[in-house]
Amino acid sequence: MSKESSTRGAAAAAVGLLLITGAWWALAFWPVDTASSVWLTRAKSVCFGLTPSGLPDAPGWIALISQPLVMGAMYLSIWGKQLVELIETTAKTPFGRVRLAAPVALIALGVGAVSYRVASATENDFTAPPGVLPSTYPRLDREAPVLGLVDQNGKAVELSQFSGTPVLVTFAFGNCEAICPMVVHDVKEAQRRIRETGGDAFVVVVTLDPWRDTPSRLLPLFQQWELADGSYALGGTVEGVNEVLDAWDVPRTREPANGNIIHPRLSYIIDQSGRIAYAVSAGADAIADLVSRL
After folding, report:
1. For strand 156-157 and strand 167-172, is the pairing parallel, antiparallel, or unpaired?
2. E strands along 40-197, which residues?
3. Angle CA(204)–CA(272)–CA(239) in degrees, nearest 5?
C-alpha cells in the first residue's frame, strides 16, 4: 500500500469512527416521547437502559464510554502513525488547520448538547415510575430461537422443557467485571421477586465467551454467579455457542488482545408458551414488572 493510500485510509477510518460514535451517542440521548416513538424507546432501552428521566442507566453509561475508548484504541494501534503524519501535513496550511478544527468543534458541540440534555433531564421526562417501563413498552411476541447448549451439569437444555413457566434469558461471561455482574444480578433478583409474589421463572445465562467458559467450567461459573435453583449456565463448543448468540441477535465484539467481549446489557423474557415476549435492558424491577404482564 502506498503512503498516500495509507493516509487516505487513516482519514476515512477516523471519519468513520467519529460518525459511529456520534450516531451511538445521539441515539442514547435523543429525547423520546414514549407514546409516539415506541421503536425508539425499545432501541434506547435495549442498547442503554432507561432511567425515569429517559437517560441511560449505569451499564448504559459504561457502554457509551467504553465504545469510543475501545474503538479508538484499535484505531490507534492500526492507524496511529498515519494519523500523526496526516495531522502534521494538514496543519501546514491555513485551510488544513480549518479542516482539523472542524471535527474538534463538532465534538465540542456534541459534548455540550449531551451536557445540556443531562442537566435539563427531570423525572417527568419519562412516564414510567422508577424501575418500571412504560405501559407502551412493546411486546415482541415472536418465536424464540433454539438453545441446544449444555448446562452446568452437562445436560442439554431447550426452552421446551420450561413450558408453562416464564424464562429469563440473558448473556454474560466469566471474565467480565463490568456489565456482566449487573446483568446476572438483574435476572437473579427478578427471579427472587417473582417467587416472592407467588409466581416463578427460570433463569438461563448463556456464555458470551465459549473460548474460556468451556463446558467443564460451567459449574464453577454457576457457583461464581451464585445462581439459585431453577437457573442454568449454558455453554458448548465455540461454533455452537456463536450460532446460538447469532440466532438470538446478541451484538458482541471480541477483543483480540485480551479475549474480552464487548456487549450490551440484554435480557429476553420468554412467555409461558416459549415465545419471546420482551427484550429489555433494565434492572430487576423492570424485568419482574414485565413478567407480571405476561
Report:
1. unpaired
2. 142-143, 149-150, 156-157, 167-172
3. 35
Residue 202 phi, psi dihedral angles, 5° rounding: -85, 155
CATH number at residue 222: 3.40.30.10
Burial (CB < 10 A; 0-12, 13-18, 19+), residue 67, is middle
Q: Domain range holding 259?
A: 142-292
What's the grid cell of residue 196? 416472592
Higher pLDDT, 280 or 50: 280
pTM of the model: 0.62
pLDDT of residue 85: 83
Q: Which of 59-63, 109-113, 221-225 has the lowest mean pLDDT?
A: 59-63
Residues 274 and 201 in one domain: yes
Indicate the number of domains in the chain. 2
C-alpha–C-alpha distance, residues 119 and 211, integer Å:
43
Domain C-terminal end among 92, 125, 158: 125
The helix/strand/coil state of 207 is: strand
Kindly state the cell numbers that stand for 16: 468513520
- Residue 188 pLDDT: 94
In a domain, 130, yes or no: no
